[in-house]
Specification:
This protein has 332 residues and is of the alpha+beta class. The chain has three domains: 2-59, no CATH class; 98-202, Methane Monooxygenase Hydroxylase, Chain G, domain 1; 223-331, TATA-Binding Protein. The chain is 58% helix and 15% strand. The chain has eight helices and nine strands. It has helices at 2-14, 64-97, 101-145, 152-202, 216-220, 234-248, 299-304, 308-331; strands spanning 20-25, 31-34, 46-50, 55-59, 225-228, 253-257, 260-263, 273-280, 287-294. A hairpin with a 4-residue loop joins β3 (46-50) and β4. 14% of the residues are buried.
Length: 332
């Protein structure tokens, strides 16, 4: 220690402006004492020595897996924040639009009544078309029985009436489908309204965990973010997710940790590196499993992350880990 102090004091005397020195070892094992950290040593181990020659701090840079984990945590947090802001906005709109459950029910009745009026109008139109069809068809059949060839204009009119009847029938089907969708939307709004009112009553003095306010619809909007609930085998979900990555990526797995899996960085503009990360969800709501696609930092690489291949990886992610785990459970 005295030798170190002597060396440091000598260096400080030679450079009075230096308040501290750095001790670091190069790749050949040689020890260096400098008043600043060389650029190529910023991400290497080093020791800070004060002006008295005493070691005051040893800096150990983050390991590659720690850096990757931190980056994925930040991306996951950003995605969750975006999801929560959207949910908060939709909930606020719902609470501003309605004051009571009865208002939602009445609005649904009005909306359904409008659809029924439209459907009734189309049904009446179909009746008129069918009446014309029957009349025209009878006229054509009567002529044929008498050996008279129907005029081309009559036949074309008959064909147009059939097409119009088909279009109107399809229109009724579309209206019925849309009406059912609207009924389900109002049912979801009513259920959400009741939930928000209940949460408000039960949490007057505290803010409930944000994740508890998310809906299944919120989670479905994000293809690469999966919330494994506590009543599922989240370890199986994780294993299936890692298998999914290993089977997809053109780049081999470069790092595997209990909560982290990375493939190698893409070597060209048409390769995708995949990063997988898991972390506990707040309020004991399960485990977040997050997939991140990593393309080269070039224009072509950026565009490839928006390609059909990239979309397929995203779109199949949650479906794969859910279906694979469900199948394994059935076979077990």
């Amino acid at each position: 220690m005295k030798a170190v102090q002597t060396i440091v004091l000598a260096l400080i005397l030679a450079n009075p402006a230096a308040a501290e020195m750095y001790r670091w070892v190069d790749e050949y094992g040689k020890v260096h004492y400098t008043d600043r950290v060389p650029p190529d040593r910023v991400n290497k181990n080093r020791t800070i020595i004060n002006k008295h020659g005493i070691e005051v701090e040893t800096i150990t840079p983050d390991r590659p897996e720690d850096i990757a984990r931190k980056q994925l945590q930040e991306k996951l947090a950003s995605t969750r924040q975006e999801m929560l802001k959207r949910r908060e906005s939709e909930d606020n709109n719902l609470l501003q639009q309605y004051r009571t459950e009865e208002e939602i029910v009445e609005k649904r009745k009005q909306h359904v009544r409008t659809f029924n009026i439209q459907i009734h109008g189309v049904e009446s139109n179909i009746k008129r078309i069918k009446h014309k069809l029957i009349s025209l068809q009878s006229e054509i059949d009567e002529k044929r029985e008498r050996g008279i060839k129907p005029g081309q204009g009559k036949l074309e009119t008959l064909s147009r009436l059939h097409e119009k009847a088909d279009r109107e029938s399809a229109r009724i089907q579309a209206l019925e489908t849309r009406k059912q969708d609207v009924i389900e939307e109002y049912a979801a709004d009513l259920e959400r309204f009741r939930f928000l009112k209940q949460v408000s009553r039960e949490n007057i003095d505290r803010v409930p965990p944000a994740t508890t306010l998310l809906t299944e619809e919120d989670l479905q909007r994000y293809d690469t973010l999966y919330l494994c609930p506590p009543d599922q085998d989240c370890e199986k979900r994780w294993i299936e997710a890692t298998r999914y990555l290993a089977s997809l990526s053109a780049t081999p797995v470069s790092m595997e940790q209990p909560d982290l899996l990375l493939t190698q960085e893409p070597g060209d503009d048409e390769q995708i590196g995949l990063h997988l990360f898991r972390t506990p969800a707040e309020a004991n709501l399960g485990t977040w499993i997050y997939l991140d696609l990593n393309c080269r930092d070039t224009r072509k690489g950026f565009m490839y992350c928006k390609s059909e291949e990239a979309d397929r990886i995203r779109n199949d992610f949650k479906q794969h880990i859910s279906e694979s785990s469900d199948l394994a459970s059935q076979q077990g």
